[in-house]
Design goal:
284 residues; alpha/beta; 12 helices; 2 domains; disordered N terminus
Length: 284
């Protein structure tokens, strides 16, 4: 939705990092899209191509089926370092998406026995990855990298709920204005996402983030890529910087590395270089 912008200096640094980053050991990477995304999100942003240029083989997109099974679409074999995308039901509650991700992770583990897995989650995908680890166990996952993820929620979710609320005297007028501003398809997507938007509300006792953020998390490596585009309060236009910081999560305080990025909220090909640097740092 938001096109990333970067300075020429930053772009040059990312290119050098992509070229010179130390090679990581044999490993598997699973890329988890954010709200209203799909398995093509990382392709459209150029992340998969950048990973391929650095020696990672794209092996396909895991998708869910109504019968409770998962299948691998666009299957393309495996390599010494293999990367997968997933397509989750992007308007469903976070717990449902996390459970689907766990099923997909089990499928990856069957294809890659004894190989470590790195989960990379963009936006809500980072929260989904963390929720899957807490609900479904660690398995072979040894590393979680989140990009612009609302670990402490976002007021934008509450604003979206309010904008689509049909209750009260002004509800119908509010709906009409919101439809006109967003367009029919975007408005319908918000209406279908009511439970998910509640999940992304700032944590408090009784909601999902209020519960998740105090649960015991696996003893793995945690990295948070925090967007900061110079707004007064920090962070990008959707998620405050402090909400993207995994160290602000009570259960993970002091356990995560935080990497600042000047980009906007959306994915960018330059993210591949940071992902590779963090994987190499863990290996080193």
């Amino acid at each position: 939705m938001y096109k990333a912008t970067k300075t020429p200096v930053f772009a040059a640094l990312m290119l050098l990092l992509l070229v010179w980053a130390p090679a990581a050991p044999a490993s598997v990477m699973v890329l988890v899209h954010g709200y209203l995304g799909d398995g093509q999100s990382f392709h459209r942003a150029g992340v998969v191509d950048a990973l391929h240029a650095a020696g990672w083989h794209y092996a396909g997109d895991w998708r869910h089926a109504p019968d409770g099974q998962v299948h691998l679409a666009n299957h393309n074999g495996t390599g010494e370092r293999t990367v997968y995308t997933v397509t989750l039901p992007a308007t469903a509650p976070l717990a449902l998406q996390a459970d689907w991700l766990t099923v997909m992770r089990h499928a990856v583990e069957k294809r890659h026995p004894d190989e470590p897995i790195t989960l990379v989650g963009h936006s809500a995908g980072g929260v989904i990855g963390r929720l899957a680890l807490v609900r479904g166990g660690q398995g072979a996952v040894e590393h979680l990298i989140t990009i612009a993820s609302p670990h402490l929620g976002t007021e934008r979710a509450l604003q979206a709920l309010q904008a689509t609320n049909s209750g009260g005297m002004f509800g119908p007028f509010r709906q009409i204005l919101t439809r006109q501003a967003l367009g029919e398809s975007n408005y319908d997507a918000l209406r279908q996402s009511q439970a998910l938007l509640l999940d992304l509300a700032p944590p408090h006792q009784g909601n999902l983030l209020g519960w998740l953020n105090v649960q015991q998390h696996p003893d793995i490596t945690y990295d948070a890529l925090v967007r900061n585009t110079g707004f007064r309060m920090g962070g990008d236009i959707l998620i405050p910087a402090w909400s993207q910081d995994l160290n602000q999560v009570p259960a993970l305080r002091g356990r995560a590395a935080v990497i600042a990025s000047p980009l906007d909220h959306g994915l960018d090909a330059a993210d591949a270089a940071v992902i590779l640097e963090r994987i190499a740092a863990r290996a080193g």
